[in-house]
Amino acid sequence: MPAIPSSIRPWTSGQTLTLDPKTVGQIGMYKLLISGVVPRPIALLSTCSPDGIANLAPFSFFNAVSSNPPCLSVSITRKNNGDKKDSLRNIEATKQFVVNVTPSWIAEKMNQTSAEYPYGVNEFSESGLTPVQSSQVMPPRVAESPLAFECELFDQLEIGDGSQGSTTLVIGKILAVQVDENAIQDGKLLLEKLDPLSRLGGMNYGLTRQTFELARPTLGSENPT
Ligand SMILES: Cc1cc2nc3c(=O)[nH]c(=O)nc-3n(C[C@H](O)[C@H](O)[C@H](O)COP(=O)(O)O)c2cc1C
After folding, report:
1. Which of 70, 100, 133, 197 could potentially form a cystine with 174 if both were Cys, beta carbons 3.0 to 4.6 Å apart?
2. What structural domains does the chain harbor?
């Protein structure tokens, strides 16, 4: 296991610049967010239309929200023309989705699913990823993903006025977790098996392969979470 990083600042800091989001503008803020909030895990989201046509798309404005009830969040922005993305249309219609965690070896296929296919095109077929029937929800999960969360819509929050950058924050309650038996040991997920891909700024991606351990400080008998 690599050592804890040195506690000496590795470069000389300068003065702090205060940036006003109004002056930076929507596109500038988007660039600051995607290059500043890093690394972001990538949810490969499966949804389906009410008549059962499967859709796949990656979302990196994605995170864990709570464990009771167990919830995840995904932020789905409007298309540049203001229309809702297919994933959101499907979630609003079916109230269901699957979050597939993205292992690095499917990076190119994941990327293929981000193309703006017309509504109703099956993106499993387009990307070559393999659908597997879910246990609790209609959208299939991705066989190549070692970890998937089957979710029902818990809540959604509209952020913005519908103009460019406006977003729907989707919160999903986890109904089932699907995990490859070789990626979990004694209830703990194995990072090297998940090999999670992350999104960085621009067109850059990260790998999560170097880790170190740092125990939480305890001030008494409390149990840090
Ligand atoms: C790695 C990656 C991460 C992305 N993250 C997001 C995101 O968090 N939110 C979003 O609205 N779009 C995101 N996109 C863009 C969507 O995947 C893209 O708009 C896609 O066409 C949406 O598909 P859909 O219309 O089938 O839902 C991301 C694309 C890539 C490649």
Report:
1. 70
2. 25-207 (2.30.110.10)
